[in-house]
Specification:
The strands form three sheets. Strands 3, 6, 9, 10 and 11 form a five-stranded mixed β-sheet that branches. This protein has one helix at residues 4-22; strands at 27-31, 37-41, 108-117, 127-131, 147-151, 157-163, 174-180, 186-192, 212-216, 219-223, 226-228. The chain is built from one helix and eleven strands; from the N terminus they run αβββββββββββ. It has 231 residues and is mainly beta. The structure holds fe (iii) ion (FE). Residues 86, 88, 171, 174, 176 line the site of fe (iii) ion.
């Protein structure tokens, strides 16, 4: 008995079944900060050039591709883009990693990440000096509310706890920052938020300075890796 026709039919069935499976909308599971899991629909957000599912996407419409500098085993990266300091920097900010104060209004935001050099080596004891407007878009220019500096730990890691800054005239949401490796060049930059309409009309906004943002039970979790010149 010639089995070839039967084999051909079986192979055709397999191919059809495989095609049906792979054309289904992919979903992924992501972990929240509190270790609960959420299902992440990916049909609208998978990059055209990268079929892996970005980890920084959630189902509420806030999404950004996870392109953290020095991520995915990279061994080199460009220095974080330098942008204007703006008119509201105040020197000698207090040293604290949390800018939250009792009774402060706004959405809580925790930003974590690393400071690397351009060879993607973590930089311990790097300075990060943050300042920003409050949730209403107002800076404290007489005191140090929402201003503070900190240093990376031995692994080059930092964590900033604050609130999401509000808009003010002419600007999209942003957090100012100065970053400096010990005895290194001082980098002045700003961090931006994905999905903010005003990003498009902001002349300082740059895609490379977007935080990766996820929602948590009590606010937002952001991630950003800074890159400073190698010493
Ligand atoms: Fe500003």
């Amino acid at each position: 008995m010639n089995r070839k026709p039967i084999l051909n039919i079986l192979m055709a069935v397999c191919v059809v079944a495989l095609a049906a499976c792979t054309s289904a909308a992919p979903t992924a599971i992501a972990s929240n900060n509190d270790n609960t899991t959420v299902v992440v629909p990916t049909t609208a957000s998978v990059s055209e050039t990268n079929t892996t599912v970005p980890t920084a996407e959630i189902s509420n419409g806030i999404s950004t591709s996870s392109n953290l500098a020095c991520g995915n085993g990279s061994t080199s990266a460009s220095t974080t883009l330098e942008v204007t300091e703006g008119p509201y920097f105040t020197a000698n900010s207090p040293e604290h990693a949390s800018l939250l104060e009792e009774g402060m209004s706004g959405t809580k935001l925790v930003v974590t990440g690393y400071v690397y050099d351009t060879n993607c080596q973590p930089v311990a004891n790097a300075l990060l000096d943050f300042w920003q407007a409050n949730a209403n878009g107002v800076y404290d220019n007489s005191g140090y509310t929402l201003r503070g500096h900190q240093f990376t730990d031995a692994n080059g890691r930092y964590q900033l706890t604050t609130v999401v800054p509000g808009l003010y005239t002419g600007r999209t949401e942003h957090i100012h920052v100065k970053v400096q490796a010990p005895n290194g060049k001082l980098i002045t930059s700003q961090l931006f938020f994905p999905g903010v309409t005003e990003n498009d009309g902001d002349g300082i906004f740059d895609q490379s300075l977007l935080l990766s943002i996820q929602e948590t039970n009590d606010g937002l979790q952001g991630e950003f890796n800074f890159v400073v010149p190698a010493s």
